[in-house]
Fold this protein.
Amino acid sequence: MATAPPRRAGSERPLTRSGGGGNEAVLTPSNRHRLNPGTDEESWFSTNLEPPVSLVPLTAEISLASCRLPDFHGDPADRIIVATALSLGLPLITADEKILQWNETQRVIQVIGL
């Protein structure tokens, strides 16, 4: 039986991470060391996916949405991250300048810049 993702205290919305975002942070050495210097992949995932945060699986719906983003740049991980937020109707929290600039013109999802 599947369980619902954990929720923030006092919130109706779960805290989630896109599968693409986790891979981008862990698999890109410059990102991994910038986010958590000296952290190996397994430690990064276990630290960043503790409740109340859960990992959202990459579904066919998210994959298709990532291919249909209007005028979006080619980075596949960024496409999956944005498509995940769009498909789930969740706001996206990011410091990624390309995503922030894209959303300024498209206004497709709620983006909260860091």
User: Anything to note?
Assistant: The beta strands are 15-18, 53-56, 92-94, 111-113. The first strand starts at residue 15 and ends at 18. Confidence is low (pLDDT under 50) at residues 1-8. DSSP finds six helices and four strands in the chain.
